[in-house]
Amino acid sequence: MDVFTFQALRQIARRTIGTTSRRQFENKVPEKQKLFQEDNGIPVHLKGGVADALLYRATMVLTVGGKTFGMLGL
């Protein structure tokens, strides 16, 4: 019974994996390379847009806040 179950599961897995539809994704790497290599005076860590700017600011706030909290705790 165990051998039959194992073979059945193997066959189902093979069929499922082999027949899944593959999604085609557009290659956006060349566009991103152009964006990040452009010489426009913006630091590379902010060239990604609004999300990068928010992430950078949040990191700076947490860093300065943590340092202040640490200094006041001494």
Protein architecture, described:
- This protein is 69% helix and 0% strand.
- The protein has 74 residues and is mainly α.
- It is flat and about 65 Å long.
- The model has no long low-confidence stretch (mean pLDDT 85).
Write a short abstract of this structure.
The protein has 74 residues and is mostly helical. It contains three helices and no strands.
Provide the fold topology.
Blueprint: H1 2-19, H2 29-37, H3 50-73
Number of extended strands: 0
Could you name the ranges where pLDDT drops below 50 across 5 or more consecutive residues?
none
Tell me the span between the first and last alpha carbons: 68 Å
Compute the gyration radius: what is it? 25 Å
Please tell me the overall pLDDT: 85
Secondary structure: helix percent: 55-70%
Given helix and strand content, the structural type is: mainly alpha
The biggest sheet amounts to: none
Shape: flat
Number of distinct helices: 3
Q: SSE order, as H and E?
A: HHH
Oligomer: single chain
Strand percentage: under 5%
Defining key terms:
single chain, 74 residues, mainly alpha, 3 helices, 69% helix, 0% strand, flat
